[in-house]
Amino acid sequence: MIKKAVIPAAGLGTRFLPATKAQPKEMLPIIDTPVIQYVVQECVDSGIEDILIISGKGKRSIEDHFDRSPELDRILSEKDEILYNQLRHIENMANIHFVRQKELNGLGDAIRHAQYHCANEAFAVLLGDTVIDSVIPATRRLIDVYEQYHQCVIGVEEVEPDEVSRYGIVGGSWLSGDIMQLDRLVEKPERGAAPSNFAIAGRYILTPSVFDAIEHTERGKNNEIQLTDALRLILERENIVAATIEGKRHDLGNKLDFLKTTVEFALKRDEFAEPLRAFLRSLILDK
Ligand code: UTP
């Protein structure tokens, strides 16, 4: 049983400057809901209610978002029952804990901060700037695979062959149509050198052996402790599987992805679909 999830959310978000100069990228809203709330919702929909958020300097608004706001509660309880219930839902979604990553030494280092909380059991990891829109929550799918194999599970998605050099790419042999036994993990390979076109998608189930692997991981790209490098160490002595995730991955740390996601999600909302579609059509016809 996977009971805990870790959401790394301490990064600087330099790809989204200047918006992220004084606010966390994980709090940027897709329409009216901060990115990290979708990620927490995925945990809850996957059956996990114990969540550790790796926080850091300038990330206090994440804590405030999941905390109670007595002033708003007081005003809305009299004025707007729907909004009031939405806010109460946010503060009661899960048991959310926070630990601060004091120096930004990379994703591997961020996960190391979960050691005290997750020392004895496998846990889920969901990147705090990545939303996966799917019918079956991506983390739920990885938990099901973990329960079958009892190995680390890496969520992967198929990408275009000319995109492999932007991602961590897995290689190995397919155990079934959607589960691969790994023999390789390659960070940002050249197009011809990629062992597959399945990319690491920001969702993982990790066993506690990851903490020892992180301890032994040298600084890699950007002089940071990379989680992929730690997983490569694990692969030398343990099996790891990759599982394809259904649905669509949105990297909200990337400005273009953020724009596209906002439009896509708005088109799915009853109150915006029709006027937004008309607006987009008029923009295109005007061109
Ligand atoms: P990214 O590499 O996308 O985050 O990490 P970043 O460093 O903020 O990105 P840019 O390149 O500067 O724009 C994915 C997730 O891991 C967290 C980030 O907050 C993000 O949610 N992270 C990354 C940490 O918690 N700590 C780190 O040291 C690095």
What Rg is obtained from the alpha carbons, in whole angstroms?
20 Å
Shape: globular
Bound small-molecule species: uridine 5'-triphosphate
Taking pLDDT < 50 over at least 5 consecutive residues as the criterion, the unreliable ranges are none
The ordered H/E elements are: EEEHEHHHEHHEEHEEEEHHEEHH
Q: Ends: how far apart?
A: 54 Å
Number of strands: 13
CATH superfamily of the largest domain: Spore Coat Polysaccharide Biosynthesis Protein SpsA, Chain A
Strand percentage lies at 25-35%
The major pleated sheet works out as: 9 strands, mixed
| Mean pLDDT metric | 95
CATH class type of the largest domain: Alpha Beta
Q: What is the CATH topology of the largest domain?
A: Spore Coat Polysaccharide Biosynthesis Protein SpsA, Chain A
